[in-house]
Amino acid sequence: MSRLRRFNRKILSLSSDYTHDGESDQEDVSILPLDTEEQEELIQKFETNAHITNKLYINLLSILYLLYGGLLMILVRKSRGYIKLALLAGANSLICSCITLRYDIVNDYLLFKKFKLRVSNFSINIINIILLVLMAWISFNHVVEDKKTVLCLQVPMFLFWVAVLVKRWARNIEDEIADLRCLKYKYKNA
User: Which InterPro entries does this UniProt record tie to the protein?
Assistant: First the structure.
């Protein structure tokens, strides 16, 4: 019986030696094999943490899009001619970027009971790219003398690429977590 107790103490001391000190809000993660329930709990923690951080980033970026879109709409009221058209295209581009960032859209609409219109993130991105090209064309051909306005009109293009990258990053994290679920091994702790 004493041998068994010594063996248990050695095992328990080994497991405490091989724990990794994580953040203060997370439990210690052992590098010893995890049983299936512990694996599922760990994957659930990863999934929850990824979901929370994705929501935080998406909400912060959405606020940024709305604030900058509001600024562009204020500038639209004060401007004329080609600048007004470019600013309107930039504001609409920000709206499209915000929609594709926040939502996964696939809808079919019937127009006049004959035509079927499919609206998806891909089609919204195509419209967004057309708006960005229009805005860039106007800004480089007609607003060349005012560098501040040209720079102001390039921000929606930058925010479009930020939305694309954040969406891709979130999708990659989801794929990695799905791959992690496939890598679970069967281990029962006696």
Answer: UCP010056 (IPR016564)
